[in-house]
Amino acid sequence: MKITIICIGRIKEKFYNDAISEYAKRLTPYTDLKIRELNDENDVELNSKAILKELSKDARSYDIALNIGGREYDSLSFADKIESLKVSGISHITFVIGGSDGFSDEVTSKCNESLSFSRFTFPYQLMRLILTEQIYRAFKISSGEPYHK
Description:
Elements: E1 2-8, H1 14-27, E2 32-38, H2 44-54, E3 61-71, H3 75-87, E4 92-97, H4 105-110, E5 113-115, H5 124-142
Parallel strand pairs: 1-2, 1-4, 3-4, 3-5
Helix pairs in contact: 1-5, 3-5
C-alpha cells in the first residue's frame, strides 16, 4: 500500500522535519510513504486547485481530507480503517492537510472522507507530525507489534 500526504507549505523548523523523517523511516517496512509539499499561495482557492490536481483519479485510491469537522477515530479504530481499506483493494491512501486557512469545500467533497484528530486547531507543521506518527502507530497495531500502549 502507498500513502501520500499532500500538504500546503514547507516546514522550516528542523525539529519537525527530524521527527517526521524518523516516522517516515520507521514506516518503510509497512508502506511507501510520500510527502508532497505544495507551495503556499496564501489563497484558499489557489491552494485548493493545486490540491485537486494532486488527487488520484484511480478507483483503487482513497482520499482523506483533514479538517476540524471530520470523523474522529481513536488509534485502534484508525488502524482498523487503514487495514479495512487495504483488504478491500485500496492500494493508495492520500491524506490532505490544508494551509493555515484550510481548503475549499470542493476539496472536501472530492475526498472520500474527512478526518479530524481534535476539535482544536493545530499548526500544519504539528498536524503533519501527528498524522505521520498515527499512521506509524496504525501499522504497528495492525501488525500486532508492540508500540501503541
